[in-house]
User: Which sequence fits this backbone?
């Protein structure tokens, strides 16, 4: 009888191990962020130097995250805002920089500096166009 219990002991240990492994595997937390095509767009842009689909990937990632009530990953709003800035849409860029700052407070310092720079450029361009309009000079 004593010998028989040693035969079942390894099986019992194995079954307990499998039970707890399956139990813990079911307790994994959901993803914190919706990455969508963001990682792919970064790879295309910086490794393959292909910026053709970047804006579409960023817009799609933002829209799908909003539809699924998920958070966008850190940097996505800032990245999209910078792309808008490069295309000349400075007010929309400021809007996305502000979204990044509100969603991720640790980026506040950088986003505040970017917003201030864009506003300074807007003010500089406005004063330059006012001076040109007053003097009548065309550049």
Assistant:
């Amino acid at each position: 009888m004593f010998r028989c219990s040693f035969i079942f002991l390894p099986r019992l240990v194995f079954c307990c191990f499998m039970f707890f492994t399956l139990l813990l595997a079911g307790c994994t937390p959901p993803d914190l962020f919706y990455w969508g095509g963001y990682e792919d767009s970064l790879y295309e842009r910086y490794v393959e130097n292909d910026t053709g689909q970047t804006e579409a990937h960023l817009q799609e990632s933002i829209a799908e995250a909003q539809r699924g009530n998920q958070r966008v990953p850190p940097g996505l709003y800032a990245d999209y805002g910078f792309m808008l800035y490069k295309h000349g849409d400075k007010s929309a860029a400021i809007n996305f920089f502000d979204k990044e700052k509100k969603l991720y407070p640790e980026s506040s310092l950088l986003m505040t500096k970017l917003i201030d720079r864009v506003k300074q450029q807007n003010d500089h361009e406005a004063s330059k166009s006012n001076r040109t309009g007053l003097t009548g000079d065309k550049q």
Summary: Residues 108-135 form the longest helix (28 residues).
